[in-house]
Design a protein that fits this description.
By secondary structure, the chain is an alpha/beta fold. It contains eleven helices and nine strands. The chain folds into two domains: 203 residues, 2-enoyl-CoA Hydratase, Chain A, domain 1; 54 residues, Lyase 2-enoyl-coa Hydratase, Chain  A, domain 2.
């Protein structure tokens, strides 16, 4: 009796500013695909909300097309958004502006809320909104020519969509974060690595992308129950005291410890298999 043919992954959605591709088993590549605007960002919320529900995807790799990673939010679009808010009442205009800011914040928070690990690979410049994006990712790689800039003070505003809240947790050096945010100076790749902003620096983009895909493939080979549960609890624990994090973890695992993946993993260890040789169910 012939076996059933493997199920084809479902078709990916298309976006004007994002290019999606399944590059390896359970690995999805999201490329910021607006090089004429230096990859100014939109469509992220819809894209990552769908990725969160995509059982064929266990890990995401984000990169930018063109000569640089991204220059951030489209300033022309941003300016028109806030200047065109109707009405003369200050309170009502302020309320609407706050709602717009919250929408822009969600553009980056959605990466953090996505239970699938997100690896970001940066080449060239990563400016303004790009810093907000990468600070919401789980693992950061860059090329040796990459540079990073919290640019907002140079355009007359305080960064308000995530980098000021997340970067101190990543770098762990409040003085350095303050310096970067107050001056808008560039941080080059060596300093980014030594400060902990990125975990690895590569000679060129091609080498970086291959390493990012290999890492994603390794993570994707493991139990999705374990990996996604780990991400959710890492994010929660960052923002809560240890005691609350432990309580949350206990509540989480009182159901997750009942997964079949534990038995499969134990059996695989006894049979001297790697996680790539164990078939875990979709999640």
């Amino acid at each position: 009796m012939s076996s059933q043919p493997p199920e084809k992954p479902k078709a990916l959605d298309t976006y004007e500013t994002l290019k999606l591709e399944r590059v390896k088993d359970k690995v999805l590549h999201v490329e910021l695909n607006r090089p004429e605007k230096r990859n100014a960002m939109n469509a992220m919320v819809e894209c990552f909300n769908k990725i969160a529900q995509d059982s064929e995807c266990h890990v995401v790799v984000v990169s930018g097309a063109g000569k640089m990673f991204t220059s951030g939010i489209d300033l022309m679009e941003l300016g028109s958004t806030f200047l065109m808010i109707p009405g003369d009442d200050t309170a009502r205009k302020a309320w609407n502006i706050r709602q717009k800011i919250r929408e822009y914040q969600e553009t980056f928070t959605v990466l953090e809320k996505c239970p699938k690990p997100v690896i970001v690979a940066v080449h060239g410049g990563c400016i303004g909104g790009g810093m907000n994006l990468i600070s919401a990712c789980d693992i950061r790689y860059c090329t040796q020519d990459a540079w990073f800039q919290v640019k907002e003070v140079d355009v007359g505003l305080a960064a308000d969509v995530g980098v000021l809240q997340r970067l101190p947790h990543i770098v762990g050096n409040r003085s350095l974060v303050n310096e970067l945010a107050f001056t808008a100076r560039k941080m080059m790749a060596p300093e980014a690595e030594s400060s902990g902003l990125v975990s690895r620096v590569f000679q060129d983009k091609e080498t970086m992308m291959q390493s990012a895909f290999d890492l994603a493939s390794e993570i994707a080979s493991k139990s999705p129950v374990a990996v996604q549960g780990t991400k959710v609890n890492l994010v929660y624990s960052r923002d809560h005291p240890v005691s609350e994090g432990l309580k949350y973890m206990a509540t989480w695992n009182m159901s997750m410890l009942q997964t079949e993946d534990i038995l499969k993993s134990a059996q695989g260890i006894m049979e001297k298999k790697t996680t790539r040789q164990i078939t875990y169910s979709k999640l």
